[in-house]
């Protein structure tokens, strides 16, 4: 009787895990957007959004331990404090002591959108907000795609972007591990066109929300089966390929939110096999948080990042 009870519990547990593998991605993403709609309609949109975002991070943190994609990634790599520091610095630029990583694009929109000098009145403000947000995501993604691709193909930019790729495990906490210079480049490339077109503030809020939830999902160490979503959105499966040490795999899948430009420009990569867990870079990144910020600005640091000896060119 005890054996039958344990077998039933095991079967139920396996069934739950299988369901979560297929449902966790859409549940987290679309629940996050639903929560964002309540946040933006409230009297304190940024604070409420921060709470919704924190709840999504917590859910993924739990799922990483219940259905991990790579169990070895649950072990500490000694970089957690640095990961958190870079997330706060690059996503929040130390605003309010780095309240929540994904809030910065919304605060930036609050400040910059009214000051935009170049507005051509081309934005279709009369369209439904859902359609406006979808359009904004595609337009911003063009800048995100090319800033990301340039960061891989040009050594000047790679010295900053390498910090993000230096991780040896993917999990929800190192989502925002970017050098400040790398993040500023992406913001300029992706958001300036929207400012110039005159997109309203609410569109920037929604763009920030989509990017925030997509970011934690692409990096999470959760065994998600994303199926057809892989042909529209940047999913964990696609992003793991992008972090591969094999450059034939790593220099692909540049999309941050959607994969439309990867499909257009021939950098979409989704082979029919489990995505890579052999991730990282050839070079070495400095150990401390401040050292990691300063490293790309010194000759020695650049050589370390590129994995070159002192005598090599």
Characterization of the model:
By secondary structure, the protein is mainly alpha-helical. The protein has one domain. The protein starts with a helix and ends in a 7-residue tail after the last helix. 40% of the residues are buried.
Q: Which key phrases capture this entry?
A:
single chain; 313 residues; mainly alpha; globular
Which structural class do the helices and strands define? mainly alpha
If you compute it from the alpha carbons, what radius of gyration comes out, rounded to the nearest whole angstrom? 20 Å
Task: List unreliable stretches of 5+ residues.
Answer: 93-103
Return the string of H and E elements.
HHHHHHHHHHHHH
Structurally, the number of domains stands at 1
Q: Average pLDDT, to the nearest integer?
A: 86
The tally of helices reads: 13
**Terminal-residue CA separation:** 71 Å
Number of strands: 0
Strand content: under 5%
Shape: globular
The residue fraction in helices comes out at: 55-70%
Q: Please identify the oligomeric state.
A: single chain
Quick rundown:
By secondary structure, this protein is an all-alpha fold. It has 13 helices and no strands.
How do the helices and strands line up, and which of them pair or pack?
Layout (H helix, E strand, L loop, with lengths): L1 H40 L3 H22 L13 H13 L11 H9 L16 H25 L1 H11 L14 H18 L3 H19 L16 H7 L4 H4 L9 H6 L23 H6 L4 H8 L7
